[in-house]
Amino acid sequence: CEEAVDVALIGGGAQGLQSAYELFTRGYKCLVITEGSVGTGQSLHMHGYMHRGYLWGSAPHVKLMNESASQYVEVFKQLGVPFSTESKYFMLKNEAEYERFAKIWLSTGLPHHRLEHAPVHQPEHKDAVFVAINDYTFDNKAYIDALAQMCLPMIMHGEVKSLEKQGDELVQLTVKTLRGKVRVQPKYVVIAAGVATSSVLERISFSEETKSSFKANKTFENLQNAQSLHMICIRGPTGVLPPVTLIAPGLGFIVMSHIINNPWTGKRETLAYFTPLVPSMEVSHSALPGVAEAEVVPKIVRTGLEQFAAAFPEVNLQALEFHVYAGWKQENPLAYPSYSGTRACPAPLLGTIDNIANLSICMPSVFPFVIHNARQVPGRVRSYLASKQQQQQQQESGQQPQQQQQQHTEEERFSSYPKVVEVGSLRCFDESAKFLSWKQVTALYPPATTAS
């Protein structure tokens, strides 16, 4: 079976779906190829939180993140995705750090106001300054579901086995689906495969003489490191678990909270993602297993549980449920210096590979940069197709190729889609995830002094 499309996107997470949405609304015929259910993988780790740049404290970086966040507000309104700026707080170590950050926030237009009382218990940090900030939280499941429904006719469930290259172009993708092999013939290819990016790139049919230059490409340099992060997902009644979002490097954790309608119980609850900022495993990107899940380290989980209990001593822990998992996060290169004590300002990656003219690689690093990358993809596709059209016209008229000039071609909306479609389950959080009581989770991850 063969299918011809304008753009083939490899990866059914937030980056792949958002890029497909941007392309489709501009008239391109797209195909989203995903091995698992859409919205799984690293998209499960988004936590429904959108930074505007408060954390990193670098003016150029704040500007870029704030612009991306504003674009996402437009998307949320278009798709009907609930979002909020309420109850978001930032902890700074002392007055001097507050003054340094406040100056940057003022110059970049990020609103904040200083709090008289701390939103969490922190007796050991008497010099700390807490401020209310205007980051966004959003319904992660509603966002993925809305994108998936929009992209539903374009989704193919299968594994890309090979990418065939002729000259400087990718001309065919061989996809293994439940109904057999499909040969996809795209005009342009976008890889939005997250931790599987290196694995997908390795499947390109390079000749031996070009593999060395491929390995030395700048995009591969940008994929050098990945770090595992631990998440403790906590849910409970809204009257028990306060919907507080707090960025607190000084306390050693970040907690991001939402008010949700539990899809399994139908009840209104608080859902909190608690991330202990503890040094964890780091590997080269090429050594990643190709899946977003990482190995859970019991010591880190126990630290996180103790941090949560200490920060919220008035919360009835027996009324809450806990689910623990770990995932990989790409470490893109430093784009700007960071003043918050974090190792890097995360940078968006929209890369290319030498000797391949019709390929882009999207890796957002943090959620706001998903839209940053996705909004640039149609321009790249348009520029490439315009260049190809110009070359064909010159060849037909017998003219010598001229210097490449970007020109806009009329975009045609396609009404036919690939017939071989296997759709994922459209679930944002795995229904099989096991939530434990406080007694169960503390028994599973006991203190080091009592662990066997």
- Uncertain parts: 333-343, 403-431
**pLDDT averaged residue by residue:** 80
Class from helix and strand fractions: alpha+beta
- Strand-residue fraction? 25-35%
Radius of gyration, in Å, reads 23 Å
| Range of helix content | 25-40%
**Total helical segments:** 10
Oligomer: single chain
Shape: globular
- How does the major sheet shape up? 11 strands, mixed
The separation of the N and C termini measures 56 Å
Tally of strands? 21
Q: How would you portray this structure in words?
A:
The chain is 28% helix and 28% strand. It has ten helices and 21 strands. The chain has helices at 14-24, 59-79, 95-108, 140-151, 197-201, 208-215, 218-221, 298-311, 368-397, 438-444; strands at residues 2-10, 30-34, 49-50, 83-84, 88-92, 112-114, 129-133, 136-138, 155-166, 169-177, 180-191, 225-237, 245-248, 253-261, 268-276, 282-284, 293-294, 321-331, 349-351, 359-363, 436-437. Strands 5, 6, 7, 12, 13, 14, 15, 16, 17, 18 and 21 form an eleven-stranded mixed sheet that branches. The protein has a five-stranded mixed beta barrel with strand order 1-2-9-10-11. A three-stranded antiparallel sheet has the order 3-8-4. Helix 1 crosses helix 4 (140-151), helix 1 (14-24) crosses helix 9 (368-397) and helix 2 (59-79) crosses helix 9 (368-397). The longest helix is centred in the C-terminal third of the chain and has 30 residues, at 368-397. The protein is globular. Residues 333-343 and 403-431 have low confidence and may be disordered.
